[in-house]
Amino acid sequence: MDGTFDWGEWAWIVALSILGGEAILWIVGGYYHLRYYVRRRHEPQTWKCQPNRFLRPDQQRQAMLLSTANLVVGGLISGTLIYALQHGLNTPIYFEVAEYGWAYTLVSTAALFVIVDALAYYAHRALHAKIVFRHFHRWHHRYVATSPFVVTAMHPVEFLVFQAVTFLPLFILPFHYVSIIVVLVYVLTLNIVDHSGVRLVSRIPWQGPSMYHDDHHVYFHCNFGQHLMLWDRLHGTLRRVDRRYGADVFGGKGVPAQASGEPRDEFVSY
Ligand SMILES: [Zn+2]
Ligand SMILES: [Zn+2]
Prior knowledge:
Layout: H1 7-38, H2 57-86, H3 102-127, H4 130-141, H5 156-167, H6 177-194, H7 210-219, H8 230-235, E1 243-244, E2 255-256, H9 257-260
The structure holds zinc ion (ZN) (2 copies).
One zinc ion (ZN) binds at residues 140, 195, 213, 217.
């Protein structure tokens, strides 16, 4: 790092980083909000994952505020990282494709996505440990019905955990800076879609349907994955219809549905 800290330059980079995140939240989120929650509000059974459940207006406002605030924190962190990179912070990040070649750049972009997705699964699963869930992750699970604006509506500590696991690989393996931007934009955008509360099946072959994460909000301790359903399949934490789940059923694998004597699909309020 060189000696002097240029506050003006730092402020510009941070402001642009914040603006980037907020633009994605409000443009993508706004699109689904207007298209479904405003225009087709009267026919939720035709499009909504949970047709009988909507966020109360105060919950929706709270989610918007919390998501927006967390993305300000996110912009502060990524902007500061970009500033530090420009001023000599030593990381394996590279700026010229020629340094590693196209083949490496493309494969490493896919690898970054898979690594970030795996880390997000394990971090999310750790957040479902009873004590961590009750102190932090419960904030995000207050929204049993989701909306696009629930995406980063979470305890700031949890948001920092996800930021940390997303940035961790950048300090270990070489990635092109555009690959990093592509993966970050993909993760935020598709997370908004997955929280939209709208029944959507993606054309992207590796991307699970929106019901996958919507079910996570309904059943709590299963379907921990972010984009790929692979990690849940591997660890047996994908929701099964013959198991009962709920806010009080920790561990990720549910309990036999029959043992509870309750209808298997009953929603559990928290
Ligand atoms: Zn969760
Ligand atoms: Zn969620």
